[in-house]
TrEMBL record:
It comes from the Bacteria. The lineage of its organism: Bacteria, Pseudomonadati, Bdellovibrionota, Bdellovibrionia, Bdellovibrionales. It holds the Pfam family DUF4286. It comes from Bdellovibrio bacteriovorus (strain ATCC 15356 / DSM 50701 / NCIMB 9529 / HD100). This is DUF4286 domain-containing protein.
Length: 107
């Protein structure tokens, strides 16, 4: 399993619309791509009103390293451009790829 983490800082005034777009369009489009298994949308509650943005994190799980390579080479730019067209200048993003994830559960 591969974990692909997208951390976003979204401007306060755009935040509600941006989160709705993630929930109703973007994440579903990404999950329809080859190799994607699941996504977790993490929304930070609160935050200082004087801050210019709110944090959002999306944690995707992909089946293997080949899947993330395919995504990066064939689909990533197209997915990023959709967000930039719709919300230009309203967010910033950082991305990380973790090639090994070890899961633990409580008993």
């Amino acid at each position: 399993m591969v974990t692909y983490i997208v951390q976003l800082a979204v401007r306060w005034e755009t935040y509600p619309e941006y989160v709705e777009w993630l929930k109703n369009e973007h994440i579903a489009e990404v999950l329809a791509l080859p190799g994607f298994i699941k996504a977790e949308l993490c929304l930070r509650k609160g935050g200082a009103m004087e801050a210019s943005s709110k944090d959002v994190k999306i944690i995707y799980t992909l089946k293997d390293e080949d899947a993330i390579k395919t995504y990066m080479s064939e689909y990533a730019m197209q997915m990023r451009e959709k967000g930039l067209e719709k919300f230009s200048g309203q967010f910033s993003a950082q991305r990380e790829v973790w090639l090994e994830t070890i899961n633990f559960t409580s008993k």
